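Review this:
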Amino acid sequence: MQLTSLTTISPIDGRYFESTQLLRNIFSEFGYLKYRLKVEIEWFKKIMSMNKLLDIKKIDNNDILFIDNVFNKFNEKDMLYIKNIEKKTNHDIKALEYFLKNKLSQSKKLSYLTEFIHFACTSEDINNIAYALMIKDALKKIILPLWLKIINILKKLSIEYKSIPLLSMTHGQPATPSTMGKEILNFYYRVKRQYKKLKNIEILAKFNGTTGNYNAHLAAYPYINWHIISKEFIISLNLIWNPCTTQIEPHDYIAEIFACISLFNTILINFNRDIWGYISLNYFKQKLIKDEIGSSVMPHKINPIDFENSEGNLGLSNALMNHMINKLPISRWQRDLSDSTVLRNIGAVFSYAIIAYYSMLRGLSKLKINSFQLLKNLNENWSVLSEAIQTIMRRYNIKNSYEKLKKFTRGKKISKANIYKFISDLNIPEIEKKRLKKITPTNYIGYAIHIVEKTIE
């Protein structure tokens, strides 16, 4: 069977092909190879720049251009060449080294310097930097822009719905009113915090040999400060240098990134479930799309499938991330290989998250507030004013205020007339009775509007 988007095992490359295509340049086998090729080339160029220290031939700008073009013109034919070498070596980095040596040997001048390709490196020197660059690009180009889009839409909805009163539900029961804008604002504030955190997490990399001590480097050139060279090299790639490692960079920063993304995703799961519930209560209507079908047998249905899809894929992303958070920072002694196969699934982590983000955004674009239903539910629940009434009674030192309201309201259907009569019979100043009678379930919203405006400011 020919491999296409219809014959893949994973829906990441099948059903959700369009949502995840931006990640392919980064996390595909081709992408991973290309990032590692970049690291090999940049290290070779760094070595060449030390020609006087190493007592080797100096290369000129034309040589640099030749080297850079190996990366710039890297294509699927090159990748297949590397994979064919790997079939013999059963080692992907060694196959990449041999490919690069073959390429540079085509230049008469560079052919004498090919032994400085992968000089003093262990595979993890190349791999950890490649992953760092891949993660950095995924965050900068895809994840953070998508997060910002979600944040801005939540901000917009918070402002748009800031004055629309909402019957709150604590424990699934009618409670003190809020506004729809304020409830969306709560999520806006939470995800914005994670956005700021993610932007500031340092992405680390190491370049210090087989057990982190520059043994081979010093064996070849004992008079060079390889510790400083390593730092310069990592910083030149716009990464943060990790000076203390075993054979591998310990992946703590990846765990930190995934912890942040996982929390962001969990907040969105909470949001999706709340919106799903509001749709169920008819607080939101969903825009009708003519040719869409909600059920194969029930023609009337418009299901909140985008929020359900988002919730499911956020869960998948989190499940993978939580495994990686627990797995990746642990390595037996100076190195074991159990992290390698796990790291190859980082693309899947981001993919499930991105599928979820797009689904949620699609769902939000279909929503239309149903103010009539919101007001109807509020006007059917005058008992929520018992909080305000008993609090004012306490102010005037009326004994057993709470208990009196409990006896009056609990388990009963309370109307506006019932509330007015109760207020009229209270032993409080007439001015307070008038003020209390002006409070309704639709205006008993406290600082909800003010909190939206101040937070958005």
Observations:
- Residues 27 and 312 are 22 Å apart (CA to CA).
- The domain at 17-119 is CATH 1.10.275.10 (Fumarase C; Chain B, domain 1).
- The chain has a mean pLDDT of 95.
- The first helix runs from residue 17 to 27.
